[in-house]
Amino acid sequence: MARSFSSKVGGSLACITTALTLLIQPAAHAEEQTWQSVQKAGVLRCGAAVAAPYVMRDPSSGQYSGYFVDLCRDFAENVLKVKAQFVDTSWDNQVAGLQSGKWDMAMALNKTPERAKAVAFSVPATDYQISLLVNKKNPKFAGLGNNLPDYDKPGVTIAVISGTAADKAVSAAIKNATLMRLPGSDETRMALMSKRADILADANDTNHLFALANDWTNEVLPVPALAKQGVSFALALQTPPEDMAQLDAYLTQRRETGEIDRLVDKASAEILAGKKAQ
């Protein structure tokens, strides 16, 4: 009787051990070294959703530029010793692409609570907040300052890029104005230029560049501030801490030495000079 009981226990323990092994194996696989995999493949794939000056794409050549592109390329070539590959995508698909393994890093993402549940974020490469661009001659905004509620009125249409941090922040803050969600910066700018939209809500540096090239615009940094935060790279949620630490150290060093500021100036000069992205 005792022998029979011992046999059953032994069999049960064997089953439990097998089950635990099966449970542990996927976890171990999930902790695969991100940079080791990239180096084995010989290429760092960066998800590229266009928004100047972060990420720009020449429509004729397909070549990418912008300061996040420069950072991705530099990190790939000089730190990981691999080639950089830029994968065209939209802002709506940046997180999903990481989760499905279509690219290794997503460029120029803001860390929101929702995104932080799905992907891992580097330290910020630069700072961000949302600004509003309006036509100086639009009578709806005559004499207004930077008080956000003054722009949140019935009959006002705000253009925003769908799926971006600006979209989420404006959607949460705006109660009375109408939101016009469009796929990219070209579409939102055209909406403002054609007067289909009264306001363009986008990243402050992106809007600033457009305003410098179009003197009919007026920049508004709203109070209270919208989505004031850092702009980072994003990686898969299971990225090993040591791999993220390597990227963080790279970005911190580039920021402290002023290299990122120089890359921002380079991207800005390209746009203001009317050059196509190379």
Question: What is the strand and helix layout of this fold?
Answer:
Layout: H1 2-30, H2 34-41, E1 43-48, E2 56-57, E3 64-65, H3 67-80, E4 83-88, H4 94-99, E5 105-110, H5 113-116, E6 119-121, E7 126-135, E8 157-161, H6 165-173, E9 178-182, H7 185-193, E10 199-203, H8 204-213, E11 217-220, E12 226-236, H9 241-256, H10 259-272
Question: Could you explain the architecture of this structure?
Answer:
This protein is an alpha/beta fold. It has 2 domains: 137 residues, Periplasmic binding protein-like II (D-Maltodextrin-Binding Protein, domain 2), CATH 3.40.190; 101 residues, Periplasmic binding protein-like II (D-Maltodextrin-Binding Protein, domain 2). 43% of the residues lie in helices and 23% in strands. It is built from 10 helices and 12 strands. The strands form 2 sheets. Strands 1, 4, 5, 6, 7, 8, 9, 10, 11 and 12 form a 10-stranded mixed β-sheet that branches. Strands 2-3 form a two-stranded antiparallel sheet. Helix 6 links the parallel strand 8 and strand 9. The longest helix has 29 residues. The N terminus is likely disordered.
